[in-house]
Amino acid sequence: MATPVITPEAIAEAARPTALRARRRMSAGSVAAQVFMLAAAILWVTPVVFALYVSLRPEDETTRLGYVSIAHKLTFSNFTDAWSQSDMWRFFLNSVWITLPAVIVTLLLASAVAFVVSRLSFRFNIALLILFTAGNLLPQQVIITPLYRLYLQIHLPHALASSGLLYDSRLGLIVINVSFQLGFCVFVLSNYMKTIPTDIDEAALVDGASLFMRFWRIVLPLCRPALAALATLLTTWIYNDFFWAITLISTGNKRPITSALANLQGQFVSNQNMIAAAALMAAVPTLIVYILLQKQFIAGLALGSSKG
Amino acid sequence: MVSTTTDVRTPPAATKRRRRRRVRRLTRRDKVVVSLLLGIPLLLDVAFVWLPALGSVFLSFTKWTGVGGVHLKSCSEFQTLPGLPQPGCLNGVQNYTQAFGHYPDFWPAVRHNMLWLLVFIVIATPLGMLFAVLIDRGIRGSRIYQSVLFLPVMLSLALIGIIWELIYAPNLGLINTVIGRNGNTNLIDWLGNPRLNLWAVLAEATWRQSGYVMVLYLAGLKAVDPALKEAAVIDGANSWQTFWRVVFPVLRPINIVILVVTVIESLRAFDLVYITGKGNPVKGLELLSVAVTQNIVGETQRIGFGSTLGVVLLVISLVPISIFLYQVFRREER
C-alpha cells in the first residue's frame, strides 16, 4: 500500500467514496478520531444529563450529599412545584402569543420583499437587499437605547397593549422580533426565489395573472421548502430570545418563558434544583423541534450560509 | 410571447431590454401592490432597526436622562438646578472622552469582548470544523455525534447559563466535587472569582458555538464536489493536504459566513452573563453589551452615554458586516 505505483486497483480504491475506504482500513488515525468524537460527545451531553439528574432529586438531599452522589430518591416534585408555584403557564402562553404571530408575519413580509427584489427588476434591488441583510447583522445592543426611548414614545390603545405603550407590551416584542429577523429571511428567500425559473412568471403573465397572483399563487407555494426551514429556525430563535424581552418588558408576568427564567431564578433562589427543572421545562418546545425538525433547522442554517 | 422574439439579440442587450419591459408591464394596480409588498416591511426595518441605529449616533453626542425632550442646545447653556432634572442637551464628544478615559468598565469590557472573540476563533471555530470534517467523512456513529454536538445550538443561552451553574456550583457542583475542592476551606468559586469567571462563561459559550460552527461547516462540506477530493487523492495527497489545499479554499464563502457569525456573536454576548450575575453586574464579566444595557434598565437612565457605547459596538461590527456584504453582493453588482 505504501508503494507509489499507480495500479488500476489503486485508482479504483481512490475513486471509492471516502467513507467506504475509511471503514476498510481502521488506521491509527481513525481510531484516534473515534476516541476524540466519543470523548467530545460525552462532554457535550454531560451538562444536559447532569441538569436532568439534579432536577429529579429533592433539594434537601442534594444539599446534604452534593449534586455528584447516588440518588436515594428520584421525583418529579421539582417540576410540579416549579409549575404550580410560579406563573409558568402564563409565561408559556406569552411565548406562544409572541412567537406564532412573529414567525408568520416575518415570513409573509420577508417573502413579499424577496419577491419584489428577486422577480422584478428595480434599480434599487441590491441596495434594498443590503439594507435588510445588514440590519439583521447588527448587534441588538447597537439599537436598544434609542429603540427603548422610541417604544416609550409610541402610544397604543389599551385594547392593543395594557401598558398603553409599545414598551412593555406583547405587540412591542412581536414588532421588534419581526423587524429584526426580516433581514435574514429576505436574504434567504430572495436567493431561493432566484433559483425558480422566470418562465413560470412569464407564462402566468400571458395567462393574465396579476402581480399579486403571481406572488401568492405561483412563487410563494414553490418556496414551501425554504419557508418550512425558515419557520423552524425563526420559531426557535424567537422562542429563545432573551435580550428583547429583558429590555423591552418590565412587567414580570408579561415576559415570555425564556426571559422569565431570569425572574424564576430570583424567585426560587434557594432551590437550584427547581430552577433547573423550570429551565428544562422551558426547553421542551425547542427539544421537540430538535427531535422532530432537526433536518429543517439545519436546512435553514444551510440556506442562510450557502449563498456568499 | 413577445419576449422570445427579442431573445435572438446579444444576451446582455436582450436581458436589459427585457428587464425594462417587465417593469413597464406593471399595471397601475400592480404598482400599488408592489409598493405595499415592499413598503410595509421597509417601514418596519427602517423605523425599528435603522432609525434607532442612526439615533444611537445622534444621541451619543447628547446628555439625556430620559426626562423631557432633547434640545438642540449645548449643555453649557442650561443651568443645573439641584433637584430639577436637566432636559436633554448637546454634549459634544464628552460621552466619548468619558467612555475612553473615565468609565471604569469600558476597557475591561473591550478586553473581555476581545477575549470572547479570540476564544471563539482559536477554540470554538477549529473545534466545530474538526467535528464537521470527521462527521463528513462518515466516521462510525456520525449521525449520533452530529445530533449530540448540535443539541446546545437549540437551547437558549438563558437555559445554558442555568444548567452550567450546577456544574460550577462551589459546594455541590460537578467540577469541584470531582477535583476535591468542595470543602469550605478550598472552594473554587468559578463564576464569582473575577480571575476565573470569564473563562468559565467562555466554556459555556464555546459549548454552544462549536456546535453552531459544525452545522454551518457541514452544510459547506456537503456542497463540495467529491470529484475534487478524489482527484487530490489520486494525485497522492494525504487527507491533511487534501483538506487544507483543496477543500478549505473551496469553502471560502462559508469561511466568511463563519467569520461574520463569530465576530457578531461575540459582540452580542449578553444572555449568559446576565443569567450568571442574576441581572446584576459581576466583576470580571464586564462586556460592552452589558454596559449598554445598564444605562437604560437602571434607575438613572443615561441615554446619551448608553448610545455612545452602542456606537462603539456599531463601529466594530461594521467591519465584519462590510466584509460579508462585499463578498455576497460583489458579483451581483456587475
Describe the structure.
The complex is a heterodimer of chains A (308) and B (334). Chain A is mainly α. Chain A has helices at 8-15, 18-24, 28-55, 59-65, 77-85, 88-119, 125-137, 140-153, 170-194, 199-206, 211-222, 224-240, 243-248, 257-267, 272-282, 284-292, 294-306. Helices cover 75% and strands 0% of the residues of chain A. In chain A, helix 6 runs parallel beside helix 9 (170-194) and helix 9 (170-194) runs antiparallel to helix 12 (224-240). Chain B has a three-stranded mixed sheet with strand order 1-3-2. Chain B has two domains: 1-43, no CATH class; 100-333, Orthogonal Bundle (MetI-like fold). Chain B is an all-alpha fold. The longest helix of chain B is centred in the first third of the chain and has 32 residues, at 28-59. Chains A and B meet through helix 1, helix 2, helix 3, helix 6 and helix 7 of A and helix 2, helix 3, helix 5, helix 6 and helix 7 of B.
Please give a quick description of this structure.
Chain A is an all-alpha fold and 308 residues long.
